[in-house]
Amino acid sequence: MDPVPSMEAVTIRPAGLDDAPAIAAIHVAAWLETYAGLLPAAMIAALTVEMRLAAWTRILGDPASGTTVAVAEGPAGLVGFGSCGAQRSAELAADGFDGEVSAIYVLRAAQRRGTGSALMAALAAHLRQSGHRAASLWVLHDNVSARQFYERLGGSVVGERAERREQATLMEVAYGWRDLAALQRSPVSG
Ligand SMILES: CC(C)(COP(=O)(O)OP(=O)(O)OC[C@H]1O[C@@H](n2cnc3c(N)ncnc32)[C@H](O)[C@@H]1OP(=O)(O)O)[C@@H](O)C(=O)NCCC(=O)NCCS
């Protein structure tokens, strides 16, 4: 993945193991900012920096993890990240979506400046380079702003599911892009 310049001196680059602490911190901060009111409080509280640090350290430290992570770096440090890999849903794979975006988070203070679009373009480029043609992702049905973002990038709803978790059943929809080349070309200027 080649570094891609984004808006306002934010650069998109591949993540390394040293980025794990900042990625874990952004993951938890973005969860708090995004999901208060959308998810049960107990579920939000259950996501700790320690847990996320362990998970991202494992992923970034294992070249065979199958997950690629891109980070968005500004002058004061990381402001967002995204991850992708092979499709995990057999149903969506059968529908042609061989790749999957597994996470994308930009801190609220850094949103609406093109960083999310640049991250999606970088993930699309990586998926294409690793032989994928299409990709999808899961988003909470009620996460309206993220859904508007995916729609702005040309995604369309290609699936839905009720995901049972310990504290709640989550209603989610899948957005898909059948042409990763188009997604790679589509950064939106902020
Ligand atoms: C979704 C997310 C990654 C978008 O990142 P971003 O850096 O703000 O995205 P961009 O600046 O590239 O936005 C591109 C376009 O998407 C649309 N968009 C983005 N955020 C939007 C919002 N909150 N409401 C409506 N449209 C939005 C707009 O059309 C925007 O262009 P504009 O700013 O010129 O109007 C970011 O808001 C985020 O991390 N949200 C919290 C975590 C989350 O929900 N992640 C997804 C989990 S599945």
TrEMBL record:
UniProt keyword Lipoprotein present: no
PROSITE patterns: GNAT
Source organism superkingdom: Bacteria
A molecular-function term among this protein's GO annotations: acyltransferase activity, transferring groups other than amino-acyl groups
Domain N-acetyltransferase, residue spans: 10-176
Keywords: Acyltransferase, Transferase
Gene3D superfamilies reported in the protein's UniProt record: 3.40.630.30
Protein name (record): L-amino acid N-acyltransferase YncA
Organism encoding this protein: Methylobacterium pseudosasicola
